[in-house]
Specification:
- This protein has 89 residues and is an all-alpha fold.
- The protein is built from four helices and no strands.
Length: 89
Amino acid sequence: MALGAARRDVVKSVLSEALSLVLAGIAIGLVGALVLTRFIASLLFGVKPTDPATFAAVCLILTAVAVLASYLPARRAAKVDPLVALRYE
């Protein structure tokens, strides 16, 4: 913001970085979950180990939580006066 970025741009930048990390984590987690389904199949009752609805619901919930967890600090950081932030450093 000290170099001319708008508050909206700062929030958008933080959210895009967080979302890229979330998507990478979800991809790795899905691969790991699909690999481990053989081992946990005996522990699941009433749900198939590769149930697409369960995988989709978990991915959506994790994405929503991660976006919210990154939006709140990004919004707070965008409200900080750039002069105050520069003086602090």
